[in-house]
Amino acid sequence: MTAVNRQILLVEKPTGKLGPEHFRLAEAPIPEAKDGEVLLRVRYISLDAANRAWMHGATYRSAVEANTVMAGGGIAEVVSSNAPGFAPGDIVFGDTGWQDYAAVRGKHLTRMPKIEPMTYLLSVYGIAGLTAYFGLLNVGRPKAGETVVVSAAAGSVGSIVGQIAKIKGCRVVGIAGGADKCRWLTTELGFDAAVDYKSGPVFKQLKTAAPNGIDVYFDNVGGDILEACLPQMNLFGRIACCGAVSQYDGTPSSHGPRGVPGLIVVKRLTMQGFIVMDFDSQRDQALADLQSWVASGQLKVQEDVITGLENTPQALIGLLAGDNRGKRMVKL
Amino acid sequence: MTAVNRQILLVEKPTGKLGPEHFRLAEAPIPEAKDGEVLLRVRYISLDAANRAWMHGATYRSAVEANTVMAGGGIAEVVSSNAPGFAPGDIVFGDTGWQDYAAVRGKHLTRMPKIEPMTYLLSVYGIAGLTAYFGLLNVGRPKAGETVVVSAAAGSVGSIVGQIAKIKGCRVVGIAGGADKCRWLTTELGFDAAVDYKSGPVFKQLKTAAPNGIDVYFDNVGGDILEACLPQMNLFGRIACCGAVSQYDGTPSSHGPRGVPGLIVVKRLTMQGFIVMDFDSQRDQALADLQSWVASGQLKVQEDVITGLENTPQALIGLLAGDNRGKRMVKL
Predict the structure, then answer these.
(1) Do A266 and B226 touch (CB under 8 A)?
(2) Which end of chain A is more exposed for a tag (fewer CB within 10 A), N or C?
(3) Nearest to residue B282, comparing CAs of B139, B99, B73, B121?
(4) How many helical (H) and strand (E) elements, i.e. helices and strands, does chain B have?
(5) How many CB atoms lie within 10 A of CB A181?
(6) Mean pLDDT of the residues in chain A
């Protein structure tokens, strides 16, 4: 056990691309759990494109600030508790930040079941899996036989979106960067086709991969790829807006996708933004479905686990560049 | 009665701004109603921003072509009928085109009730009124106490949207061009506030006019005004995408509004396109509601009737420039 609390601080908010110079490793005393708080030993830190978006300003959470511990969700074990309902040894999820230990208010923690591997609590049964589930089924609402397109398809959310869409009887096209990822989507995960955005214009490749048009587009990226999908949407198509990772790292684009709102009117499209917390009341059903699909082998879980707190900044920088396949996390 | 059939032809499709040079007045024999057709005497031609959009290419209908009679909806009286269900003297709505007489297939016509004034069949009980009704209530879904913003607020659809929103207990802000129109919205139609997009930046004016943010934005225009509304939308706000008149006349914008999809995600907005035909099954209820509001004086009907087929091109050109207040039509 570490004697001190190692922490990664955000030194300054990046104005351009995120780099290692924006972070610093520091040491602090292990905090104490004040009244209402729980002292946690962090086990796994979740890396998410949203971490970068938080640096721009308030989103669905308040902005992260310079010279504080970088914010981030994590799976942790309770060391000691001054909050009702938590006991040493409990496993919880919460915004622990990038550090070995955290004192967090009990009411901001979600108690997690003890499952093996524990990493599944961050991937398929965590925010990634639930985001894929709710975004596809509650926002995208695909019907069997329809064509579903998902961007960042090899990522933590996209890889699950595509597999759920297959389970629901859809034709599934993934958009990802690089031939390796695309091959993996079709050979390992059962996608019907994959479009490599690094190998040529997405618009043309999509025409071939989705010859009957797109009924549901699960958008993780925004920008040019959203613009390429819009004219290929079918009448009454649905666009589930999950993220805009193309806009997070560096200066956000000075304009939005062509075709908004013209194509939205003509094709009677629905674009709907969501975040996973909006569907908390349906969480149990979602987890039950995900567990049954994992158990039956219909849903494969891909994780990308990096070891060592000191590697967290580079893990996020790489995630924003698309280095990961499946859910990326750091094991402490 | 005219001895010949005067027609307005679209001479060529405009690449830039629509002008009088794109039209020509011609004369043709009065057509005969072939089998399945009805010969119509056109009474009122509806002018709509969508007429201009049809010149760009196929939308929810096929594109209009050069050197043919300009397409357009009209209220007409049946002269003679070779189609079942239609008899001389019947009043119908259909795509008559810009001409005195038209032979139209019976199955493409909608029989209309004989009401006075007949113009209401094109305004409050026509596409304008039904578009406002369905777009606001079925797509925007405002709740009492919420803030509704509508653009092109002095136009045929917008002026009705705002009044229905008031009937439903909302705070209503209209965006229109010019102090006169804005004054009319607040003093005559009961809008709570109006923003004059010609007098200064819309974003700032909206901040004052909608201090609690926007719950429903009924978008008739797209472009910069949509971009100004997006950051002021409240969580779970709805944008009813009815049209993009800012993009119709001239070269369409090379980009879309900033904030798509970033703000859609963060604020969990829904942007939904629609056209009135999507709600045909609920037409009777809508007409009953509209009639009761007109009868009670809660809904004022504003019409802008221009006389003479030869004035139809200028009537459309002026409509695209925002000259009209309420529903513009041409009386033949």
Answers:
(1) no
(2) N
(3) B139
(4) 9, 16
(5) 22
(6) 95
Query: Once rounded to an integer, what is the mean pLDDT over residues B9-25?
Result: 94
Name the closest residue on chain A to residue B261, using Cα atoms: A222
Q: Which helix (H) or strand (E) holds A162?
A: helix A158-167
Q: How far apart are CA A28 and CA A12, in angstroms?
A: 19
pTM of model > 0.90: yes
Cβ atoms of A43 and A331 within 8 Å: the answer is: yes
Among A252, A267, A274, beta carbon nearest to B268: A274
Compare all CA atoms of chain A with the CA of B254 and give the residue at the minimum distance.
Answer: A258
Cβ contact (<8 Å) for A270 and B273?
A: yes
Across the interface, whether the CB atoms of A272 and B264 are under 8 A apart is answered yes
- Domains of chain A, each with CATH number or no CATH: 5-123+303-331 (3.90.180.10), 127-277 (3.40.50.720)
Three-state DSSP state, A20: helix
Q: How far apart are CA B272 and CA B238, in angstroms?
A: 8
Element (H or E) spanning A215, and its range?
strand A214-219
Joined tokens for residue B86: 């239609």
Residues of B in contact with A244 (CB under 8 A): 261-262, 265
What is the least distance, in Å, from the CA of B214 to any CA of chain A? 16
Q: Does A50 touch chain B (CB under 8 A)?
A: no
Percent of chain A scoring above 90 in pLDDT: 91
Of A260, A267, A274, the CB nearest to B260: A260
Closest partner residue to A241 (CB to CB) among B242, B257, B265 is: B265
Residues of chain B in contact with residue A269, where contact means CB-CB under 8 angstroms, are 271-273
What single-letter amino acid sits at A282? Answer: Q
- Between the alpha carbon of residue B190 and those of residues A19, B57, B84, B183, the distances in Å are 55, 38, 45, 10
Phi, psi of A213 (to 5 degrees): 85, 180
- Please tell me whether residue A169 adopts helix, strand or coil conformation: coil
Question: What distance in Å separates the CA atoms of residue A332 and residue A98, rounded to the nearest whole number?
Answer: 10
| A-B Cβ pairs (cutoff 8 Å, strict) | 118
Alpha carbon A198 to its chain centroid, in Å, reads 21
Give CA separation, A25 vs A137, A149, A312, B115, in Å.
41, 40, 10, 78
| Interface predicted TM-score (ipTM) over 0.90 | yes
